[in-house]
Amino acid sequence: MSVLATIAVLALLIVVHELGHFMAARLQGIHVNRFSIGFGPILWKYQGPQTEYAIRAFPLGGFVGFPDDDPDSEIPPNDPNLLRNRPVFDRAIVISAGVIANLLFAYLVFVTQFTTIGIPEKFDFQPGVVVPEVTAQDAPAAKAGIKSGDVIVSVDGQTLGASKEAMQTLMDVIRAHPNETVTFGVQRGDHQLDISVVPQLGEDGVARIGVQLAPNGSVTAYRRPHSIFEVLGLAAEQFQSMFVTTVQGFWSLLTNFSSVAGKVAGPVKIVEQGAGLAASNAASLFPFTAIISINLAIINILPLPALDGGQLAFLLVEGLRGKPIPSRIQENVMQTGLVLLLGLGIFLMVRDTAQLEVFQRLFQ
């Protein structure tokens, strides 16, 4: 059930993204002739008065189609409601609406979480601080041998207790010892380890070891929100924090690709992680949904062929030069980008499937 729930979340996010494009076009009176979830052969379709709705074989995304270049379309080429005949600004709204829809949906997920489940009131702290992720393979923590899932229980002989202050204590020690050896007491499963790490100064002058940190424990009690304004405010804080963290992750990928590329996850890995979260705590599907929605938005706004950002780049060039780039060039670039994007998706699916525990057991 947890796997199905995660797949449903991914499908919902694709629908939200494409609905953004669809609604932005229809609300402006622009003709839309196709609304598809997935690519490739059609598995199911429904022909509406103006639009064909379809589910296709390869669930690696979706698309909204326009009759501009459809040879079978009965709409005159000079119709002002064809997308290509609209001003640059109108087209930019349609193209960017999918990204906006995913960002807005992520915020609404947090609003729904705080409204239905409640606001965390009591946290059951355990000793130490959790390392959810080592951010880069060339970071001090990775070089020293710290791994994702480790629990740091002491630093330089100072025990990190079971409290919310433990994480701040650990960060204070790290920041106070740039380029100096700091010894961590690490709990890894049933094993206790002593690992020495040398924090390095970042560009902002703050010493870091290259990990994410989180309190060790879980929420055990929730309370009802005092008002809708409290819900909206807390949701905004959570959204901002997650958005900034995600943008920083993409920046690390761009600036330090060789070290971070191995952490790029495809649909199979995302489903595995989401299923694990759902199995342990169904409430964790809320932040999982939000972070995937934010990731989907940021990926699509990148200026790459076959993505929304690539089409916006074409529009920017058109606005600067006063006329569009020849359609043949745009089509060739977009088709090449689509092939590369599908190829990357298939590669990630094969790689992540091979790394699943069930497959690892088969080849042991």
List the main descriptive attributes of the protein structure presented here.
6-stranded antiparallel β-sheet, Pdz3 Domain, 364 residues, alpha+beta
Number of helices: 11
The overall pLDDT, averaged over residues, is: 81
Assign an overall shape.
Answer: elongated
What is the H/E string?
Answer: HEEHEHEEHEEEEEHHHHHHH
Provide the β-strand percentage band: 15-25%
- In whole angstroms, the N-to-C terminal distance is 28 Å
Q: Tally of extended strands? A: 10
Unreliable stretches (pLDDT < 50, length at least 5) are none
Radius of gyration: 24 Å
Instruction: Indicate the percent of residues in helices.
Output: 40-55%
Profile the largest sheet. 6 strands, antiparallel
Number of domains: 2
Structural class: alpha+beta
What does this structure look like?
- 50% of the residues lie in helices and 23% in strands.
- With 364 residues, the chain is α+β, with helices and mostly antiparallel strands.
- It folds into two domains: 2-115 and 295-362, no CATH class; 126-219, PDZ domain (Pdz3 Domain, Roll), CATH 2.30.42.
- The strands form three sheets. Strands 3, 4, 5, 6, 7 and 10 form a six-stranded antiparallel sheet that branches. Strands 1-2 form a two-stranded antiparallel ribbon. The chain has a two-stranded antiparallel ribbon with strand order 8-9.
- Helix 1 (2-27) runs antiparallel to helix 2, helix 2 (88-116) crosses helix 5 and helix 2 (88-116) packs antiparallel against helix 9.
- The longest helix is centred in the first third of the chain and has 29 residues, at 88-116.
- The radius of gyration is 24 Å and the shape is elongated.
- The two termini are 28 Å apart.
- The relative contact order is 0.13.
- The model has no long low-confidence stretch (mean pLDDT 81).
